[in-house]
Amino acid sequence: MNKETRELVAKVPQVTFLFWILKILATTLGETAGDAVTMSWLGETSPEAKGTGYLIGTGIFGVIFIVAVLVQIRARKFHPFLFWLTIVATTTVGTTLADYCTRSLGIGYTGGSTILLLCVIASLLIWRWATGSISIETVSTPKVEIFYWVTIMFSQTLGTALGDWVADTNEIGYLGAAGIFIGLLLLILLAYYLTSFSRAILFWAAFILTRPLGATLGDFFDKPLAEGGLALSRYTASLTLVAVMIALIVIFPQKPASKAH
Question: Is the whole model's pTM more than 0.90, yes or no?
Fold first, then answer.
């Protein structure tokens, strides 16, 4: 691996326990922040305004996502705050886009989740076909970085739809849905340690499943008591999550990745 490739790979953090904690916090933040903009701010005038709120919110967060990805691609080395800002941008745009598709367009959770799952699979297959691998070790050129972030954006959107689908349509509540996704993540962990199954596929499976876990936790924090939530302010929950993420990034410095996980 030449020097230029090492520098590019170094823009991706090592996949450690801290990585997954920050990922779950980021996805939870994506849910609360996305809802704060589309439902509390843009959709506060009337129920009908929420549809417009989802669309405008998707546009706002979409611009932030594109700018963050471009800056990330142009960066010469790994910057923890830039990387996690980009991750949060994918979670917020994923939240608003999923809500717009499943609620405003009338596709429903089943239809929305199916379409988004196909998008994730297609993104991974095209990435694999174009580069020969979907491992984070291959994130070494702008072309591959685009595949990486597009796949992440689709996975975050899918995760939002899955979280809402499981929590809302099966009457198990947000904590029950969170328990299901935690159980699935534990199965992936067992597969990682007990089998020789593809590490790249296990990584992406876990990456996708942490999004609905964060979505259900975010909904649990800010939904009304009558709907099984804690009725916390979306703004307060979002700011708290931001503070916790910043503290973890500062207290526990992350190292750039140097090999596949």
Answer: no
